[in-house]
Fold this sequence. Notes:
The structure holds two protein chains of two kinds.
Chain A: H1 21-53, E1 55-57, E2 67-68, H2 71-78, H3 82-113, H4 119-129, H5 134-147, H6 154-163, H7 166-178, H8 182-190, H9 195-224, H10 227-233, H11 240-248, H12 253-279
Antiparallel strand pairs in A: 1-2
Helix pairs in contact in A: 1-12, 2-12, 3-6, 3-7, 3-9, 4-7, 5-10, 6-10, 7-9, 8-9, 9-12, 11-12
Chain B: E1 14-23, E2 26-36, E3 41-45, H1 52-60, E4 67-72, E5 75-76, E6 87-90, H2 102-112, H3 117-130, H4 146-159, E7 164-168, H5 176-193, E8 196-201, H6 204-210, E9 213-218, E10 221-226, H7 228-233, H8 238-243, E11 248-255, E12 258-261, E13 266-268, E14 280-286, E15 291-295, E16 301-308, E17 313-319, E18 322-328, E19 339-344, E20 348-351, H9 378-383
Parallel strand pairs in B: 3-8, 3-9, 6-7, 7-8
Antiparallel strand pairs in B: 1-2, 1-4, 4-5, 9-10, 11-12, 11-14, 12-13, 14-20, 15-19, 16-17, 16-19, 17-18
Helix pairs in contact in B: 2-3, 2-4, 3-4
Amino acid sequence: MSVASAPLREEAAFRPATRPVILVVAARSIQAVLFLAAVFFITVPLAWLVLLAFAGNFNFPSLVPTSFTVQWWHTVLSSPGLLHSVVLSVTITPVVVALSAVLCLPAAYALGRFNFLGKRVVLLSIFSINAFPRISLYIAMIPMLFALNLMGTVVGVVIVQLIGTILFMTWIPATGFAAIPDALVDAAHDAGASKFQVFWRVMLPLARPSIAVAAVLSFLAAFDEAQGTFLVGAPNYLTMPVRMYSLVLDYPVQFAAVFAVVLSIPSVVLMLLVRKHLFAGTGSAMQLR
Amino acid sequence: MRTEPLTASRGSALVLEQVRKAFGGAVAVDEVSLSVAPSEFVTLLGPSGSGKTTVLRMIGGFIAPDGGRILIDDNDVVKVPVERRPTAMLFQQLSLWPHLSVARNVSFGLELRKRPKTEIRTRVAELLEIVGLADFGGRLPAQLSGGQQQRVALARALALEPRILLLDEPFSALDTKLRVELRTFVRSLQREVGTTTILVTHDQEEALELSDRIAVLRDGRIEQIGTPGAIYDTPETGFVAEFLGAMNFLAGTVDGRLARLSGGITVPLDAVPTDEVGAGRVEIGVRPEDVIVTPDPGGAFVVERVTRKGYVNELFLRSGPVSLRAYVGKDLALEPGGSCALRFGHLHLFSARPPGGEADGEAPLATAPIDALAEMTNAREAAR
């Protein structure tokens, strides 16, 4: 029996080092302060926005409105075409996100899992969409959309909103796919799964948190998109942000506040819907804890 | 290089015939041939870069060989994709799917095979019972320890009822105690189930403990293959001798029935058929446990250092330019600075290494080892 034994791993390496109590307390305190700061900076502007939306009389030195009213809500909600905008926004945006997922996730998968000729060029060109002022891109697109008879159509609006989601929907899930250990993929093939079954049953569920993040960011990008939507969709298809921009200048600031609150509702709902996907990822790429 | 005769193919569970693989010009596996009997446990042992993992992954279908044939139950499987090969692999890294419960991990392959639900349920329960995790089916992998996860992975592999079970260093991610526990478990399970098994490892203890046969790989070739006892007792090359166990190499010159080492030390070669070596330069190989140390104030060797290895002490001995290591019983009263005399219980003679180079695997070795001394001392008994 040989004595020059196998490499021994030290047991101690598995135990976390015990730190002095004072450091633990300090770390916890800093954590608490940062958390409270985050809560403050997220909730206060929102609260102020809501306050503003109900403000009747609100002039400078006063920090809170001196009178309250629902007049602005009445004005906004009864403004002609608002319902149309809401329906338009709430239907077009999910279509854009779904289409973006269908088009971009396979690309994200390829970019995350394979090395191929021109991969860097693809990544860079996707990135370059967001590297220049968007308006120049839209202006360049308009002749094409004219040629294709897509100006002033829903399809044109969808295309123009899609542009803004591509970066999120490829880059973020690509890192999610890339972070999946090869052994998990090999094990699935080994167990008898075809390439598609591996993608569907292993890769997609494991990349889910990163896809959820990409979906949220894409949704917001599409939902808030106003420039291109206005250029392509006006005058027939005015989504909520487009309508807001066109009305804001004609009314007091409270009017815009109401719009902003209304525009926030879908984001909040979306966040609540995907929360569990963002935070409950088990051991995969975009795990947030 | 030594390979198995190719005639052994009939009735073998697995046969490799001159399998080759190169990665971008670098040869990883160079004409490896091997034949494995049904229910046999064969270990591919070698350092990193020896090609052992590449061989295993080619058997599993993860890598396509550049040439040669791979036969499982006499069928060439080279063109059969991973998902249809009758093999199952246990991976080095923890490889359970984190989003599926333990039970779903085990049932994954059966679900893909569209087996009836009731059959799947009983099979999963049975397998989890076998690996001692009957109550863990509902848990997620993250809630299990590393050792438990590897046992689930084993159940998952066995669920596929593979013809060949492939183990890719499956114990290396675990700490020492768990590793020993799990490999004992794997060995008894393999004996019980009788699945033909190929293990890849660089851990000699693992190889010695688990294998029916060990193939020592070096630079993409099988350097020696045989039972653990045969490989340990009669290593054919210096590389094998050093990789499996430890060995002292003493350069010397054969002179009649003596080998002369530098510094005027001579080693009697009474029982060695020296005519096989011829005269000239040789390497004398002695395993540290075969060095019999006797405290002797007039002895030629001086103890330089003593390292405690737990069940034995390792002595670093020197006499002029000659130095070697010996494993001795803990109760042998020798401290650094003490003098001693040596005898060798067992010698191996190798042809000399090329000057400045490492032992050349290609150079045929001169002799089989012999017992230079028949009697064993207490020290040697203790070392074993």
